[in-house]
Amino acid sequence: MSLLRSFALLSALLFAAPAAAADLVSRLVEADASSDYLAGRDVLVLDASVSDGALQELVDHPDWRVRQQAASVLGWRQQTALFTQVMQAEPVLDRAQRLRFPTAPLSQPEAFPAIVERYLHAGEGVAVRAGLYRSLVGLDARWTEVARGLFAEAEPEIRIEILVSVRKAQDPAVVLDTIRRGLLDRDAAVRAAAAVSAGWRADGAVLAPELLANLKDVDEAPRAMAARALGWLGVASAKSVLPELLGDSSGEVRLHALRSLRRIDAAQAKALPQLPALAVDADPRVANVAKKLIEQR
Prior knowledge:
With 297 residues, the protein is an all-alpha fold. It has a domain at 1-78. 64% of the residues lie in helices and 1% in strands. Strands 1-2 form a two-stranded antiparallel ribbon. A hairpin with a 5-residue loop joins β1 and β2. The protein starts with a helix and ends with a helix.
């Protein structure tokens, strides 16, 4: 582009008429989806027709991606130094050998849209983006909505991070929807993590239909974790299904099925006809639980 054309474009941006709200939403969505994200974002940052007030109004838009893009453009105008620091921050390994980012500047609530922008558009690897996600947790009142939005397109490792992070979060409608998606996920490890998160929550029993369905999962870990979660949650309807898992090929599944039956209905568990066979189970943990139940008869 020639210098003259560049000057003409900049002048048009600086002295343009105010943008209508609907047009601004369209432009934000277009910039967010652009293959040249930085160029699209910077056009909006420089555009005088896009007022700070108009962007601020969209920070409360019902679509989290519109909210994010509006907050990002606004941030690059008003807090350039902070946003630049977020983009340049280097992760470090924590004790668990996971990448995390230094406390500052990513610990500041104002950095939230910059962290999301870097996660979405910087093109970094899974380990770095997982570290960025950890910095988001609890940093903004609507972080769970962003977590749900990121879930579908994230790699399994990050989907698991998301499920772990929402175990004790508020905003039950959003959180339970995220866990439900996890229980239906295509990846077995994600399905297992979702079951664990469901079991942690006081309101997790609303996910009983999905947990009961996962007792028939083709993979061992989701079956085992679904059985465990149903016991933690005290789901009475599981009593008729869990005995079927006492003959499962996986010791882990047999163990959690038996433990959950004991939690849900101790009397039924003590009367199980499978207990003598389970008392000599190849898995010593299963055998130990079965022996204790026999002793308590």
